[in-house]
Amino acid sequence: AQSVTQLGSHVSVSEGALVLLRCNYSSSVPPYLFWYVQYPNQGLQLLLKYTTGATLVKGINGFEAEFKKSETSFHLTKPSAHMSDAAEYFCAVSRTSTGGFKTIFGAGTRLFVKA
Amino acid sequence: DVKVTQSSRYLVKRTGEKVFLECVQDMDHENMFWYRQDPGLGLRLIYFSYDVKMKEKGDIPEGYSVSREKKERFSLILESASTNQTSMYLCASSFGLTSGGGETQYFGPGTRLLVL
């Protein structure tokens, strides 16, 4: 069965510091991997995704993630945090199911950005 | 822009009531999903639908049912609401298997349901 583990339910960084949110998955090959962000009182929106091809994926708002098959990881990074990055972040993996694919979400990591 | 709308942002219901949550998408997506979001548990799939009148159980379908009579609309029904169904409910939609499983899901703003 496919699963997603996000390390750390809360992460706090200072404005301008590196953001690193960790995600490990278990999946049959090939995995489809996603990062979604949820701002307060909103639904989720896609930050970036890995399907095939280049293992370093760039997303919106300066975020990127690297697919490392040997480590079964898909960690999310941003070189310099901004106050507006404060949100909850979800890592997700697609799995096969009758009629198509379903997406399994991690428990989420809430990012706090200190001034 | 893809738009997914949900009928209510906040709902308060009594135990035992029948509750309807409505979701509409305007992008002609084949797939539609209902999730439940609880702190520390992330999103858990309740039901999904990959075509009109088709539905498939997710990971936590007990106490819920769904209806999809039109492609753009997917309803979640709580047959007899209970306090343990107090939660945030998120609807999402996506295209079918155009990219072999890598389809992006588009989410509505959520409905926060309180069952008293």
Short description:
With 115 residues, chain A is an all-beta fold. Chain A has strands at 3-7, 10-14, 19-26, 33-38, 44-50, 56-58, 64-68, 73-78, 87-97, 100-105, 109-114. Chain A is built from no helices and 11 strands.
Q: How large is the count of helical segments of chain A?
A: 0
Biggest chain pair interface? A-B, 27 and 31 residues
- The number of helical elements of chain B comes to 0
Mean pLDDT of chain B: 93
Strand content of chain B: over 45%
- Low-pLDDT segments, ≥5 res of chain A: none
Shape of chain A: globular
Question: What Rg of chain A is obtained from the alpha carbons, in whole angstroms?
Answer: 14 Å
Radius of gyration of chain B: 14 Å
Which class best fits the helix and strand makeup of chain A?
mainly beta
Q: What fraction of the residues of chain A are assigned to beta strands by DSSP?
A: over 45%
Query: How many individual β-strands of chain A?
Result: 11
DSSP, total strands of chain B: 11
Average pLDDT metric of chain A:
90
Overview of this protein structure:
The complex is a heterodimer of chains A (115) and B (116). Chain A has 115 residues and is an all-beta fold. Chain A is built from no helices and 11 strands. Helices cover 0% and strands 59% of the residues of chain A. In chain A, strands 2, 4, 5, 9, 10 and 11 form a 6-stranded mixed beta sheet that branches. In chain A, strands 1-3-8-7-6 form a 5-stranded antiparallel beta sheet, with no helix packed on it. Chain A is globular, with a radius of gyration of 14 Å. By secondary structure, chain B is mainly beta. Chain B has no helices and 11 strands. Chain B has strands spanning 4-6, 10-13, 19-25, 31-38, 42-49, 56-57, 64-70, 73-78, 87-94, 106-107, 111-115. Chain B is globular and about 40 Å long. The mean pLDDT of chain B is 93. The A-B interface holds A 9, 32, 34, 36, 41-46, 49, 51-52, 90, 94, 96-103, 105-108 and B 4, 31, 35, 40-45, 48, 50-51, 54, 56, 58, 90, 92, 96-97, 99-110.
